[in-house]
Fold these 4 entries.
Entry 1:
Amino acid sequence: MLVVDDEAPARSELRYLLERDERIGVVHTAASGTDALRVLDAEAVDVIFTDISMPGLDGMELARILSRFAQRPAVVFVTAYDHHAVDAFAVDAVDYVMKPVRPERLAEAVRRAAAIVAGQRATEAESVPDETIPVELGGVTRFVNRADIRYVIAHGDYVRLHTRNGSHLVRASLASLAQRWAAAGFVRIHRSTLVAIPHVSEMRMDHGKCTVVIDGVELTVSRRHLRDLRASLLRPREAP
């Protein structure tokens, strides 16, 4: 996540509001469009919240530059003026938030940006060649496509592969599957659970406890793996 605004108070306030959102990890900041490009050169950023009216390279010009990126970050404009709205959507902005920023309005912008990022994740996962896993039941060998697997639960020396239509027990380690399937969008959320990020429909926080929902099933996210989950949804990076 990257916040771009030439006014330090506005930049700090937006960063504060974003960091209160449980879906977001570390938030980078930049004081200009030029500074933003420097951050993007050093960090992988999926979502940018930027002011429009800034000295030098303004927010609209920054968005036009970003449109030429091979992997373009989602752009949300945050501005005190409404006359840029048409131009904003002409450069495919995800949202257009008016100052002063209301927390509930910002949360909606984050939701929209997260949906865009999730769609990009799904597209990236689909570009990875699928894998076929042989499973045996009653002496009959069947084949399950990795793309059909929603989540995986460890059971000792075995794992249970959960699909939309059922589950299959196979001899494998969760650690090896997590490493092998990372490029296909699988992320470990617990020492015994691996999930396919494109199939995560909800992330819930309740009194410090985090869970994700896949096909109506609620799965616990451990504190140790919460940061990895956030990174997979919005790909935040450590602050410089």
Entry 2:
Amino acid sequence: MERNKRMLTDKWYLIGPTEEIRANKIKKIRILGEDIVIFRDAAGVPSAIEDRCCHRNVPLSMGEIKRGCVVCPYHGWTFNGAGECVHIPSLAAEDPIPRTAKVRCYPVREQHKLLWVFVGDESRAEKTAPPPIPEMDQWPFVAREHLFEADLESAAESLLDPYHIAFTHRDSIGTLLGSIEGLPQNPDFHIEVVEDGLIGRYQRENTSSFFEKQYFGNTPQVQVHYRFFYPNLSRLEIVFRDRVLLILEHIMQVDDQRVSMTQITLWKNIFRPFPWFARYFMRRKSDKIVGEDIALLRAQRAIMDKMKEQEGRVREVSVRGDAISLAFRKYWRAKLKETSSDAPEISKKQPPFEAADAPNE
């Protein structure tokens, strides 16, 4: 956890849709082991401060919001959005508030209907920005956060993996948009490495049912575009004739054991006459999809931890079809400045390809 924290600071982290941060309400979050409270000040501007009263170290998240400030539940010390104590009930009228009566404040940004918090050196916040997601301003969406035990790298990689859809999500995505998992044996993944992540595209065979093809389109292939923004956001865009499904997954380390996965599902021209049904349907499907991923990621984490404990490393075998996952790992580990002396375990029967398979740490 300490290693991940050192490597993953100075980044913007997604808190959720801005509509979820309501006036007079406190939202408690944990990012890289840091406890933070999110709230809106008297003008409705979102703020993020340390979840700790500097008086007697009580969590401010147990308190309440009054006139846009957080009131500690223990002795009523009151903090504004800058983390400054502005009122102490027990302080004599003639005594000033101590200059040290303040807690850490985190930069906050609202962008494309999403709220982000910067964790790290505050002076670097203006030099970077959250990933652009302009579709959030135009398309309907549903969002849900999930906390579970998993390996951070594996969780971040999961949405980009093209072959797992046919197996992990056979009971969810397959029924949502037809069986579009019929990839050719050697697909062209068009992998491009850029400064802030990966960009690529590929095609899936459209093997949907007759009725699904009537609605989504009867083209032989379905276009898939994927994008990874280091270190925490993946997007998978599935394009039919004139309809689009966009899945975003934001992954972050919460503490030593758990990660947070916020999945946002957006859609264009799907169930347009029935927006209420579209939200209900997409929310149920999103929960089903994430539940399927979580079950496997939890089980995977247990096996990986056991191998690390017994052998000091994680053993894996990769093939050509893992090209996107391997490109992701190579990029991810280069960004984390990871090195490995262990050669990847690849079957000699497989054609040569650039492998980034290495032990997870």
Entry 3:
Amino acid sequence: MIRVMVVATSPVVRAGLSAVVTSNSTTLTVMGSASDLDVLAREVGLQPDVVLLDLSGNLQQSVWEKLLLIQEEQYPLRIMVIVEELDSIDLEMALRSGVRGILPSTSTESEIVAAVEAIAFGLVVLHPDFLELLSVREKVLVPVQTLTPREIEVLGMLGSGLGNKAIAKHLHISEHTVKFHLSSIFQKLGVSTRTEAVAVGVRLGLIML
């Protein structure tokens, strides 16, 4: 079972999201809930697989700072956030803070459940409207160096959540060669992690999630 921690200021929203998780999936279970990030920090020792975080009306910079602190000092989280305004999200800061999925508050129950399940398996989930916003914001952003077709192929597999061993098997190459490609991708895109590489790849239109 995938263990989910629900975090929302409103008791009604907490109850609603908990019901969404438990009623629409046989693989998800709510192992706890929290009213704010301070409570989450105290409960994170329960080691949830995914944190379902409602940020409606609460997108202060301190949110990302608190999440980043939890990430660095306590437990690495995979976080699914629900927001009212997609264009208010700082993607780079969100990813650094452990966010692996972003959906609007208008999302359906099935969309939320599917996103939580995907994040639990290592994928990054961004709503199509958010990707459109990114393409508008970053249309002047171009990579310093062009990725090769093979590097784009590897990047696409990263976006699918595959590890080095799986990528090597799919491409019939050694894991050492995969690491070489990853190093080149990171350098060309100016990133330092797999998640950042995927995010930049999406923003540049190199891959689709």
Entry 4:
Amino acid sequence: MRNVFTGIMATAAIALSLAILFTPEKEVEASSETYRQLNLFGDVFAKIREDYVEEVDDSKLIEAAINGMLASLDPHSSYLNPKNYTGMKVQTRGKFGGLGIEVTMENGLIKVVTPIDETPAAAAGVQSGDFITHLDGEPVLGLSLADAVERMRGLVDTDIAITIRRKSSKEPIELTITRAIITVQSVRGRLEGEDIIYIRISSFTEQTDSGLRKTIKRLEAEAGGDYKGLILDLRNNPGGLLDQAIAVSDAFLPKGEIVSTRGRDTRNSQRYNATSDDIVNGRPIVVIINGGSASASEIVAGALQDHRRAVILGTKSFGKGSVQTIVPLQGNGAMRMTTARYYTPSGVSIQAKGILPDIEVEQARLEVLESGFRRSEADLRNHLENGDAKSDAKKKDKADTKDSDVQDYQLLRAKDLLKGVYLFAKKNFN
């Protein structure tokens, strides 16, 4: 093996030497330094193989070196061994095994971007912004992101103990979560009341755009074709496929740029534009975001905000505005490498800034307060009837049930806002 490795290094040295011969003088010194660094790498590799206290696997050493090289670039670049690469492809199709959390690496710890709806992690109470410090009692410090994800995945119905640090808690939080098959239904919807369509997109998978259009069509039919507008809930949406984010934005934009990507080489910049359709025919839209809304969900929110097609409500988004390209490698592995940044139609980079909502609304829980004894005209003996008792009964039933049990404060505010926008538009254009 050492002879093979020495041969590889010799070949690399010859290639670098030839490159130096045809390199401008200003770049010769840099090329020579690269050659010296490669020699240093070879020396370290050989020394570990010969003198480390235990025998080590050459492939693991090389994989660790590649991992370290990519991980040093940014939190989202990494090496995917064949197993992880296969798992990644399965995940983007909308079905995979594990706990149901989207994670990133920050300061050597695993940070939860968001738990996925209706998964073991969400049921256990894992929250966006949590830091996972230990897995089955072992510290994650020193692990690569890919290694940590691999440890969290496992056989269905097996348990894993995780230790969490949370800003709101002084003590570590210990959770035991049972792994399960995670099937992501990325689009869900319902009618809020009788005249507002509510759409929840939990991630951007291959089925998101088609799921969105089918769900809206179904709910339009339920509403009899007459509804005030749409609430698009992107909270705790970690992102996903770029083409699906573009398709979802396009569904509501009749024209204009959706997003652009710009890499180191300006010639590789790309712009994506909307086609001429709007599946809700210009009705008002409110988009809800929070700190768990990342990547593809920020593209959608940014596009609709810049084109003034929607009002963005909630809290500032996560701020992941970088593009990762998956490059297949020999041996059935791949590398995930950051190759560009996202820019909203107004030319603003999302990276490390996020999307600022038009109306900032922190999440809260509602509590219905008893107002004490209060009388109204209807309580007075022999009060005069309105004259339309049947209509009054219907209105009372509707009022009694409209929002008394609502606990989602951001959603309630979004509904109120949408009704206000609808009424304003109706008064001014009818």
